[in-house]
TrEMBL record:
Superkingdom of source: Bacteria
Positions of the FHA domain: 180-229
Keyword terms of this UniProt record: Phosphoprotein
Gene3D superfamilies reported in the protein's UniProt record: 2.60.200.20, FhaA, phosphopeptide-binding domain (DUF3662)
InterPro entries: Cell_Proc_Reg/RNA_Proc, FHA_dom, FhaA_N, FhaA_N_sf, SMAD_FHA_dom_sf
Biological source species: Micromonospora coriariae
Protein name: FHA domain-containing protein
Length: 253
């Protein structure tokens, strides 16, 4: 079953049998999803290492009439569009920053049946211009957990040991004492732009002596050296795989 077919099936459940009536005479959500997929294709950017970055934030402007008709379903529809777009991006093996976000807004001046899709890379604080040729988004932005209860910049070395994860393209993610949640959602301390990774995928607990990796019930599981794990103490050189991302555990000092 294709992404579009799964989307239509979920829509039928969303409106509880009123599917044909609700969308009769207004823009059809499948048309919107098709347009979102075209926008992702049109705004591909090649990152260092050969990865393909596409927009993760999509703003849908509907005509005033269409917006008023679909208003009761807007929030649920946006969620279904986001899920289907994430599935599509995953099938293409493309990369996004964090979660796929869809916002449905009222577009003044649009005729009934017309809509506009605006796509952009959203990193949580600013929008990146994905249309620029050769655009390289650089390392993903992520907050580092501060044991004092807040968030701050990535931690430095501590206790004479440099404990870190290193990605295949050379990016380094230092670890500090305490817990670090890995995922692609806003609640993760270490965010990775990989649609195969759950919002809260795994947790690393560092007590100053060892690092224990625990899977948090992720959809695709967590692998260490090719073996699926639920919880394991990491050894230097271990290869941790989450989604399509592979990280090497390193300890110096």
């Amino acid at each position: 079953m294709s992404v579009l077919q799964r989307f239509e099936k979920r829509l039928e459940g969303l409106v509880e049998g009123a599917f044909a009536k609700v969308f009769k005479g207004v823009v059809h959500p499948v048309e919107i999803l098709n347009a979102m997929q075209r926008e992702a294709e049109a705004h591909k950017a090649i990152l260092a290492g050969g990865r393909t970055l596409v927009p993760n934030r999509y703003v849908i402007d509907l005509s005033p009439f269409d917006h008023s008709r679909l208003a009761p379903y807007a929030a649920a529809l946006a969620q279904e569009l986001a899920q289907s777009q994430a599935e599509f991006i995953g099938e293409q093996a493309w990369t996004v920053y964090g979660d796929v976000i869809v916002e449905i807004e009222r577009g003044e001046g649009l005729d009934t049946g017309m809509f506009r899709v605006t796509a952009e890379v959203y990193t949580g604080g600013e929008v990146a211009p994905v249309s620029a040729p050769g655009y390289d988004a650089g390392p993903p932005a992520y907050p580092a957990y501060d044991q004092g209860g807040g968030y701050g910049p990535p931690p430095g070395q501590g206790g004479g040991r440099n404990v870190r994860l290193v990605s295949g393209d050379g990016r380094t993610y230092p670890l500090q004492m305490g817990s670090t949640v890995i995922g692609r959602g806003d609640q993760a301390n270490l965010r990775l732009p990989d649609v195969g990774i759950s919002r809260r995928h795994a947790r690393l607990d560092f007590d100053g002596g060892q690092v224990v990796l625990t899977d948090l019930g992720s959809t695709n599981g967590t692998m260490v050296n090719g073996q699926r794990v639920s919880a394991v103490a990491l050894n230097p050189g271990d290869m941790v795989q989450l989604g399509t991302t592979t990280l090497t555990f390193r300890v110096d000092g």
